[in-house]
Design a protein that fits this description.
The complex is a heterodimer. By secondary structure, chain A is an all-beta fold. Chain A has no helices and 11 strands. Classes of the chains: A mainly beta, B mainly beta.
Chain lengths: 111, 116
Protein backbone atom coordinates (compact mmCIF):
# COMPACT_ATOMS: atom_id res chain seq x y z
CA UNK A 1 0.00 0.00 0.00
CA UNK A 2 1.30 3.43 -0.94
CA UNK A 3 1.89 5.82 1.93
CA UNK A 4 -0.16 8.53 0.20
CA UNK A 5 -2.82 8.12 -2.45
CA UNK A 6 -4.05 11.02 -4.56
CA UNK A 7 -6.14 10.90 -7.71
CA UNK A 8 -4.04 12.46 -10.50
CA UNK A 9 -7.04 13.79 -12.41
CA UNK A 10 -7.27 15.80 -14.56
CA UNK A 11 -10.34 17.37 -13.05
CA UNK A 12 -12.21 19.89 -15.20
CA UNK A 13 -14.90 22.10 -13.68
CA UNK A 14 -16.79 25.21 -14.82
CA UNK A 15 -15.97 28.57 -13.29
CA UNK A 16 -17.82 29.10 -10.03
CA UNK A 17 -18.02 25.41 -9.14
CA UNK A 18 -17.05 23.96 -5.78
CA UNK A 19 -14.02 21.73 -6.12
CA UNK A 20 -13.16 18.87 -3.80
CA UNK A 21 -9.64 17.43 -3.80
CA UNK A 22 -8.71 14.49 -1.63
CA UNK A 23 -5.86 12.38 -0.33
CA UNK A 24 -5.76 9.24 1.74
CA UNK A 25 -2.76 8.14 3.73
CA UNK A 26 -1.66 5.07 5.62
CA UNK A 27 0.97 6.43 8.02
CA UNK A 28 -0.71 7.17 11.35
CA UNK A 29 2.44 9.03 12.49
CA UNK A 30 1.66 11.97 10.18
CA UNK A 31 0.94 15.01 12.33
CA UNK A 32 0.93 17.95 9.94
CA UNK A 33 -1.19 18.16 6.83
CA UNK A 34 -0.59 20.57 3.99
CA UNK A 35 -1.82 21.48 0.55
CA UNK A 36 0.54 22.94 -2.02
CA UNK A 37 -0.44 24.49 -5.33
CA UNK A 38 1.86 24.13 -8.30
CA UNK A 39 1.44 26.14 -11.48
CA UNK A 40 2.94 24.82 -14.69
CA UNK A 41 6.75 25.15 -14.78
CA UNK A 42 6.83 26.54 -11.24
CA UNK A 43 7.74 25.15 -7.84
CA UNK A 44 5.01 24.17 -5.37
CA UNK A 45 3.76 26.90 -3.02
CA UNK A 46 2.05 26.35 0.31
CA UNK A 47 -1.69 26.93 0.29
CA UNK A 48 -2.99 25.47 3.54
CA UNK A 49 -1.42 24.02 6.67
CA UNK A 50 -3.24 22.17 9.44
CA UNK A 51 -2.27 20.20 12.50
CA UNK A 52 -5.38 18.72 14.01
CA UNK A 53 -8.49 17.02 12.77
CA UNK A 54 -11.25 19.36 11.69
CA UNK A 55 -11.64 22.24 9.28
CA UNK A 56 -9.52 25.26 8.55
CA UNK A 57 -10.77 28.03 6.31
CA UNK A 58 -8.83 30.67 4.41
CA UNK A 59 -10.85 32.73 1.98
CA UNK A 60 -12.25 30.46 -0.72
CA UNK A 61 -10.20 27.50 0.53
CA UNK A 62 -11.12 25.03 3.26
CA UNK A 63 -8.84 22.23 4.41
CA UNK A 64 -10.38 19.29 6.19
CA UNK A 65 -8.55 16.57 8.11
CA UNK A 66 -10.07 13.33 9.36
CA UNK A 67 -7.33 11.49 11.23
CA UNK A 68 -9.57 8.58 12.17
CA UNK A 69 -10.19 7.84 8.49
CA UNK A 70 -6.71 8.98 7.38
CA UNK A 71 -8.30 11.27 4.85
CA UNK A 72 -7.70 14.92 4.00
CA UNK A 73 -9.56 17.22 1.66
CA UNK A 74 -9.23 20.64 0.12
CA UNK A 75 -12.36 22.48 -0.95
CA UNK A 76 -12.27 25.44 -3.29
CA UNK A 77 -15.39 27.58 -3.44
CA UNK A 78 -16.31 29.80 -6.37
CA UNK A 79 -13.46 28.35 -8.41
CA UNK A 80 -11.70 30.66 -10.85
CA UNK A 81 -9.67 29.99 -14.00
CA UNK A 82 -6.65 31.22 -12.02
CA UNK A 83 -7.10 28.21 -9.72
CA UNK A 84 -6.09 25.95 -12.61
CA UNK A 85 -2.99 24.19 -11.32
CA UNK A 86 -1.80 20.94 -9.78
CA UNK A 87 -2.69 20.51 -6.12
CA UNK A 88 -0.38 18.41 -3.98
CA UNK A 89 -1.19 17.09 -0.55
CA UNK A 90 1.77 16.86 1.81
CA UNK A 91 2.40 15.28 5.18
CA UNK A 92 4.97 15.70 7.92
CA UNK A 93 5.90 13.90 11.10
CA UNK A 94 7.73 15.86 13.77
CA UNK A 95 11.44 15.11 13.85
CA UNK A 96 11.60 13.23 10.55
CA UNK A 97 12.56 16.26 8.40
CA UNK A 98 10.75 14.67 5.47
CA UNK A 99 7.72 16.15 3.85
CA UNK A 100 5.91 13.40 1.96
CA UNK A 101 3.97 14.54 -1.08
CA UNK A 102 1.11 13.01 -3.00
CA UNK A 103 1.31 12.69 -6.76
CA UNK A 104 -0.84 15.79 -7.29
CA UNK A 105 -4.26 16.38 -8.85
CA UNK A 106 -4.42 18.49 -12.00
CA UNK A 107 -7.32 20.93 -11.88
CA UNK A 108 -8.64 22.92 -14.80
CA UNK A 109 -11.30 25.59 -14.20
CA UNK A 110 -13.04 26.50 -17.42
CA UNK A 111 -14.11 30.12 -18.01
CA UNK B 1 17.59 36.79 -1.93
CA UNK B 2 13.92 37.17 -2.68
CA UNK B 3 13.35 33.49 -3.24
CA UNK B 4 15.09 30.15 -3.64
CA UNK B 5 17.35 30.31 -6.65
CA UNK B 6 18.48 27.25 -8.59
CA UNK B 7 20.94 26.99 -11.42
CA UNK B 8 21.19 25.99 -14.12
CA UNK B 9 17.54 26.08 -15.13
CA UNK B 10 18.14 23.37 -17.71
CA UNK B 11 20.99 20.91 -17.94
CA UNK B 12 21.50 18.52 -20.83
CA UNK B 13 24.31 16.04 -20.44
CA UNK B 14 25.56 12.82 -21.93
CA UNK B 15 25.33 9.54 -20.11
CA UNK B 16 28.37 8.99 -17.93
CA UNK B 17 29.09 12.67 -17.28
CA UNK B 18 29.01 14.26 -13.84
CA UNK B 19 26.65 17.15 -13.12
CA UNK B 20 26.43 19.66 -10.30
CA UNK B 21 23.18 21.40 -9.48
CA UNK B 22 23.21 24.51 -7.35
CA UNK B 23 20.72 25.87 -4.85
CA UNK B 24 20.82 29.27 -3.18
CA UNK B 25 18.18 29.29 -0.42
CA UNK B 26 16.38 32.25 1.05
CA UNK B 27 18.81 34.22 3.18
CA UNK B 28 18.66 33.15 6.82
CA UNK B 29 16.81 29.90 6.20
CA UNK B 30 18.23 27.15 8.34
CA UNK B 31 16.80 24.15 6.55
CA UNK B 32 17.46 23.09 3.00
CA UNK B 33 15.89 20.17 1.15
CA UNK B 34 16.50 18.52 -2.18
CA UNK B 35 13.61 16.86 -3.94
CA UNK B 36 13.25 15.14 -7.29
CA UNK B 37 10.05 15.48 -9.25
CA UNK B 38 9.22 13.30 -12.23
CA UNK B 39 6.66 14.50 -14.74
CA UNK B 40 3.15 14.04 -13.36
CA UNK B 41 4.44 13.09 -9.92
CA UNK B 42 4.84 14.81 -6.60
CA UNK B 43 8.24 15.80 -5.22
CA UNK B 44 10.26 12.87 -3.87
CA UNK B 45 12.54 13.54 -0.90
CA UNK B 46 16.28 13.20 -1.51
CA UNK B 47 18.14 14.84 1.37
CA UNK B 48 17.91 17.42 4.16
CA UNK B 49 20.38 19.90 5.67
CA UNK B 50 20.18 21.78 8.93
CA UNK B 51 22.72 24.55 8.48
CA UNK B 52 25.73 22.70 7.07
CA UNK B 53 24.88 19.35 8.62
CA UNK B 54 23.35 16.76 6.34
CA UNK B 55 20.86 15.22 8.73
CA UNK B 56 19.03 12.89 6.39
CA UNK B 57 20.21 11.47 3.10
CA UNK B 58 17.97 8.45 3.06
CA UNK B 59 16.26 9.52 -0.17
CA UNK B 60 19.40 9.62 -2.28
CA UNK B 61 18.89 6.76 -4.78
CA UNK B 62 22.46 5.41 -4.74
CA UNK B 63 26.04 6.42 -4.08
CA UNK B 64 26.30 8.32 -7.37
CA UNK B 65 24.25 11.05 -5.69
CA UNK B 66 25.78 13.34 -3.10
CA UNK B 67 25.03 16.76 -1.66
CA UNK B 68 26.81 19.34 0.41
CA UNK B 69 26.14 22.66 2.05
CA UNK B 70 29.60 23.59 3.38
CA UNK B 71 28.84 27.03 4.83
CA UNK B 72 25.23 26.51 5.73
CA UNK B 73 23.93 28.51 2.79
CA UNK B 74 24.43 27.46 -0.85
CA UNK B 75 24.05 23.76 -1.56
CA UNK B 76 25.24 21.58 -4.41
CA UNK B 77 23.69 18.30 -5.49
CA UNK B 78 26.16 16.24 -7.50
CA UNK B 79 25.30 13.28 -9.67
CA UNK B 80 28.26 11.25 -10.87
CA UNK B 81 28.27 9.03 -13.96
CA UNK B 82 24.78 10.13 -14.94
CA UNK B 83 22.31 7.64 -16.34
CA UNK B 84 19.17 8.21 -18.40
CA UNK B 85 16.99 7.27 -15.42
CA UNK B 86 18.40 10.31 -13.60
CA UNK B 87 16.48 12.61 -15.96
CA UNK B 88 13.98 14.60 -13.91
CA UNK B 89 13.27 17.99 -12.37
CA UNK B 90 15.45 18.54 -9.31
CA UNK B 91 13.97 20.98 -6.83
CA UNK B 92 15.49 22.68 -3.86
CA UNK B 93 13.41 24.02 -0.98
CA UNK B 94 14.28 25.95 2.13
CA UNK B 95 12.49 26.70 5.37
CA UNK B 96 13.11 29.14 8.16
CA UNK B 97 13.84 27.13 11.28
CA UNK B 98 13.84 23.41 10.61
CA UNK B 99 12.25 22.94 14.01
CA UNK B 100 10.24 19.91 15.01
CA UNK B 101 6.96 21.43 13.89
CA UNK B 102 6.07 21.32 10.22
CA UNK B 103 6.54 24.61 8.48
CA UNK B 104 6.30 26.26 5.09
CA UNK B 105 8.69 25.09 2.44
CA UNK B 106 9.78 27.60 -0.19
CA UNK B 107 10.61 25.87 -3.45
CA UNK B 108 12.86 27.00 -6.23
CA UNK B 109 11.93 26.75 -9.91
CA UNK B 110 14.09 23.67 -10.25
CA UNK B 111 16.75 22.33 -12.58
CA UNK B 112 15.44 20.17 -15.41
CA UNK B 113 18.07 17.51 -16.01
CA UNK B 114 18.09 15.56 -19.26
CA UNK B 115 20.58 12.72 -19.68
CA UNK B 116 21.02 11.64 -23.29
Amino acid sequence: QKEVEQDPGPLSVPEGAIVSLNCTYSNSAFQYFMWYRQYSRKGPELLMYTYSSGNKEDGRFTAQVDKSSKYISLFIRDSQPSDSATYLCAFYTSGTYKYIFGTGTRLKVLA
Amino acid sequence: GAGVSQSPRYKVTKRGQDVALRCDPISGHVSLYWYRQALGQGPEFLTYFNYEAQQDKSGLPNDRFSAERPEGSISTLTIQRTEQRDSAMYRCASSLTGGPLGEKLFFGSGTQLSVL
